[in-house]
Write a structure and sequence with these properties.
Elements lengths: L7 E10 L3 E11 L8 E3 L10 E3 L4 E4 L5 E8 L9 E6 L5 E6 L4 E6 L5 E5 L2 E8 L2 E10 L5 H16 L12
Parallel strand pairs: 1-8
Antiparallel strand pairs: 1-2, 2-6, 3-5, 4-5, 7-12, 8-11, 9-12, 10-11
Length: about 180
């Protein structure tokens, strides 16, 4: 898959505990004013090389033009909307936002407000991404898999991806220069 060129990138590295519920370490890349270059994000890269930098432990690789994007790492909590769904609401700048979600080990996305663009196993964890536009909200339900290893997770992701191919995803017609 060719790299994406979103206006912003948000990666949620999720965890869950009985005490705190669902929380996330959030890696954000947002454009600075008058930035005239594109952020590139590779979902498919196995290793980041050259000027590409790993984000959230390497779930994606980003090519960030110097001085054009601000990177912040934040903590987020209260991701559960009270109905058993996790959600993220964000304002995508003009060129849209790439939202990457990495679930804790043994968890997968079961259902979502819209299908993700793609999913993959990442270090024995399930990862998926969506492309958002404007002021947007995505929610998803998760389910826990007991006793699943890398091979089983890989098979589940292959089935998940096959189902995604049968589902239309948003199309962005404007390509970066």
């Amino acid at each position: 898959m060719a790299p994406e060129a979103p206006g912003s990138l948000v990666v949620l590295d999720l965890s869950v505990s009985d005490e705190e519920g669902w929380t996330a370490v959030v890696d954000r890349f947002d454009p600075v004013e008058n930035g005239d270059q594109w952020l590139r994000v590779s979902w498919s890269a196995q290793h980041c090389t050259g000027d590409w930098q790993p984000v959230a432990g390497g779930v994606v690789c980003a090519l960030v033009p110097p001085g054009t994007f601000r990177h912040e790492t934040l903590q987020a909590d209260e991701l559960d909307d009270g109905t058993g769904r996790l959600q993220w609401r964000d304002k995508a700048p003009g060129e849209g936002l790439m939202l990457v979600v990495v679930l804790p080990e043994s968890w997968i996305v079961q259902d979502a407000s819209r299908p993700p663009v793609d999913a993959k196993p990442f270090r024995n964890r399930f990862a998926a991404y969506w492309l958002l536009d404007g002021r947007d909200l995505v929610w998803w339900r998760v389910t826990r898999l007991e006793g699943q290893g890398d091979a089983e997770l890989g098979a589940i992701v292959r089935q998940y991806r096959a189902a995604l191919l049968d589902t239309p995803s948003p199309v962005f017609v404007e390509d970066p220069p």
